[in-house]
Each structure stands twice: as C-alpha cells, then as structure tokens.
What we know:
By secondary structure, this protein is an alpha+beta fold. The chain has helices at about 50-55, 100-105, 110, 175-185, 200-205, 220-240, 250-265, 275-305, 315-340, 340-355, 370-390, 400-420, 425-460, 465-495; strands at about 5-10, 10-15, 30-35, 35-45, 60-65, 70-75, 85-90, 115-130, 140-150, 160-170, 190. Strands 1, 2, 3, 4, 5, 6, 7, 8, 9, 10 and 11 form an eleven-stranded antiparallel sheet that branches.
Amino acid sequence: MPASEQLEVELKFDVDAGHPAPDLRVLPGVVATSEPETFALDATYFDTENLDLASNRVTLRRRTGGTDEGWHLKRPAGPSGARRETQIGFDTASADGDVPDELTLPVRALIRTRHLIPVAAISTSRTVTTLFGAGQHPIAVLCEDLVTARSLLPNGRHQEWSEWEFELVGDTDNTKLLKAAGRALQKAGAREASSASKLARAIGTTPDVVAPHLGKRPTALDLVITDIAIHRNSLIAYDPLVRIDAPDAVHQMRVATRRLRSILTGYPGVLDTEHTAHINDELKLLARILGDARDSEVQIEIGAKLLRDEPASPDLHAALIDAEESAHARAIRAAQAAMESTRYFALLDAIDELIADPLPGPEAEVAASEAVDKAIAKSRKKIAQDRADLSRLREGSAEWEEHLHTIRKRAKQMRYRADAADPLDKKKYRTVAKAAKEVQSALGDFNDSRINRARLAEIAATGSLGPQDMFVLGRIDARQEFDGERAISAYRSAARRL
C-alpha cells in the first residue's frame, strides 16, 4: 500500500490513571458511540542526535499494534495546531528495516546529512471509543491511553502516565465539536497536557524552533536576523514541495532564497560582510538553479494562456508548450539533485549558524527603522538615476527595453528591502513596498510580452506551421503587443509613486 496522508486535529489531556471517561453522546452532532476497544501499541521513535525533528515539532515512528501499524511521520500543518500525518504500512515498508524514503523526503531539509537513530520506545495500552454522527459516519474518536515510555538518549529515564486524546475524523474543521469535547473532558477531570506529544514527554525538553519576532526598540541586527530566520523557515517549508514538484513550490522557494540575499546585500553593514559572502554566493547559485525550473514553468503557463480559446493545431501546441515541458522536467531534476548535495545542506547549516551566532558589522547597533530608511533611500536613488538614463534612450529600442528590465530589478530590490521591515509593522514601509511591487509587476508584464513576441517570431520563422497556425500566431502577437503597451502605461503611473 502506498503512503497515505491525512490531517490530524486533536486535543490532548493529562488524566489520573483509571479515571473514567464521560459519556460523549451529549456532544453536538453525536448520535451514537461504539463499544470501547483496547489495543496494545509499541512504537520506536527516530530522530537525529541533535533532535532536529523534535525541535521542529516533527515526529517519526515505527509502530506495531492497533489498526494503523507501520511507519508514521507527523508534521505541523499551520498555526492552528493541526498536524499532517503520513503513513506507510508494513506491507510496503519493512518493520525492521531503514526508515522509508517516502518519510525522510519531506524532512530532508531538517535531517540533512545527519543519521536517524532510535530516541525513545513507547508502549501504550489504548482504549478507543468511536463517536458517530448522522448516518452512522465516524466523526471523532476518544483514546484513553496508559503510557509507558523509555528515553533511549544518554541518561534517559523511564516514565508512566495516563492521557486522553480526542481526535476529529473526516471533517477536521468541526471546531464546534472540538470545543465542546474539550469542555466536557476537562469538566470530567482532564487537565491540560504537560507536553505536546508522547515523544516530547519521553525525551524531555528540546530546543524548540520558535517563530521569529522582535522586541521593543530593535536594532538593525535584531531586524536582519529576524528576517533571515523568517525566510530560512520559508525555504525549509517549501523544500519538500519542490522535491515532488508541487505547484508554485519552485517559485516560492526561489523567492525565499532571493529574499535572504536581499537582506544580506540590502543591509551590508549590519553583518560582517566577509562572514556572509559565502552564504550570499551559495544562495545566488541556488536561486539560479531554481530559476531554470521556474522559467520553464512560467513559459508553460504563458503558452497555455496564449493558446486558450485559439484553434491551435498539435504542431503549434508542441512548439509553444511541449518543448518547455521537457525543459522543465530536466530543470526540476537538476534542482532536486542539487537539493540532495552536501553543498546544499552545508548552506542550510551555515544559515542556521548565522542566525544562532551572527557576527555583527559596523552598523549592527543602528536603530532598525534607521537602517530600513537608509536601504530604501539607496534603492530610490538608484531607480531615479536609471529612469533618468532611460529618458535619454530611444523608446522601443533594444537598449531601452533592457534598461526597463534593470529598473524592474531595482524595484524588486526596493520591495524586498521594504518588506524586510514587516516585523516593525509601520505603514510607511508597506506603502513603499506596494509601490515598488506595482512597478515590478508592470515591468514584469512588459518583459513577458517582449519575450513572448520573440518566441512567436522564432516559431513563425521555422516555416513548419500551416496558414491557420500562422494566422493564430499573428493574432496572439497583436494581443501581446497591446499587453506590452498597457504594461508600460501602468509602469509610468506606478513609477510616480516611488
């Protein structure tokens, strides 16, 4: 059986051993409950020596007993506390062999080159009561657990405790039932859980990765490190999605790498430049590798959009889309291979080390808002100079078009520098970022129309298409010309607000 995935939404409580559970048939939407059924569960949990998984609220286990024997990976699924659980049964993966690749792939960015080892052994006597809704459909389960846990870490200890778990089944958005169950269980004697998971309680305190945030009167160094941590977390979050070529994942991971670079280059005096130069270079390389996959992805999307509602032949479809799909397949394989390299994992380690122990530069103690003002002013000055240079060029010339592309990149730099001030929560920086984004988007649309028209001309020049397809190409080219003119008009309007 292949891997299966589901969203886990549950409540967890501590309770005295042997304490009777309440009758949950009174809960909203519950029409009946099953007879309690008891199972013996034995699980071994795996992590790195540094507890990289547990630190990120991830659990990986091999469990026997119960109705879902096999390997289980649980990961956070957003701020709500829900978790995404991936399961692989023993009919697919060995009970005694290595951790299945399907479960290590989503956490490669956390494990990196480190080895997985057993860190805890937990045995549970679980009594399960299923709650049914209308039509006798299961809507939730109550698990009454008697737990025996043994840490396998150095100086680990043996523990025993009891807990209740209430988990939604099927409709994991049933907040009314979840809240009512929480009240009923606490009224019956349940207490707030002392740990987020059985593993956390078994192995004790772990260095949890917390959401980056700023304190009062932050310095430039505080802001830069906070931003680096935010975008590092984004890069880590999109890593597993790029590995399966999920929609928009390459784009978002590339954006994360570019934003990390923008922090290093946009605020150069805050961190020691020599110390961060290598990280900046490696991020640049990663962005370029992801860029190849992203560019082909964009061309596929554009090709499909251009041919929408057009009577295109298979030959025209192949010329605009099929070749790009082959290019994308090659590019995504190259990106995925790079993400399995020791070089990539060394980059992630270097970013983590930078966050944990930054080497300050000469402007580290400058007020955060002062550093942002300086960075934005620098971007604004460069854009003003570029616009002045643009005015001296012949409109429509190749040089003029290339200069517009330079202004687009400058606007993106300004946007990223202003976005870096998000943790400061100041309206003036959001206003700057919005104006820069409008310029970037307008010039991006113009650049797309320019590239599209060049591609159309190349395809037409091959002489391989029939009259009908040539007519379609001409019509598409006219639309692209109009879109380009409209984009220039939007740019001129937005540029006045920079």
